[in-house]
Amino acid sequence: MDDAATARRKAFVDAARELFFANGYAGTTMSSIASKVGGSKTTLWSYFPSKEDLFEAVVDDIVERYGDALAIDLPLDEPVPDVLRRFGDVLMTKLTATPLLSLFRLVVGEAERFPHLSKTFYDRGPRRGKARAAEWVAAKMARGELRPGDPMRAVQHFSGLCQSGLYQFAILGMTDPDDVERLQADVEAAVETFYRGWRPDPAG
User: Model-level pTM?
Assistant: First the structure.
């Protein structure tokens, strides 16, 4: 794809994101997206054959820019709490970024009418991040640094603990999602609670 085509594709994705967030998935048409960019529906369809394809591109674009937690280093030679603390800080900083909050609200708001949107969002973001973290947890379990159990269940526990404080209010627009100190306190509490439940049994 040449530079002009790449720029054109990006313009369609940017316009779709803005309209999806403003009007919802159902309330956004391919015609309105083409009109916002200043092109024809035929040109838009040459890049994205359907609105669902365009939604997938919007999700991928946001995950690529804000999905740092999907790629953060998870070293096996560092203590469990240290790695989880660093992972949690990155995770929560990104989850409370405005584009990801807006995307989450959009998916939840349309989930009943368009359940495939939820699957698209989950497969392209949360599933990938949790699968990678579960591999690290499994390795830590094998090394005896976490008690044996279901690695994915453990990751779900940690993720849920991290999102149990400020994040819940940020979704509802009831607090400042940029409250770094409060986010860090939530992560610290999550690490402490998680490790208390999943650390190895001292009695063996």
Answer: 0.85
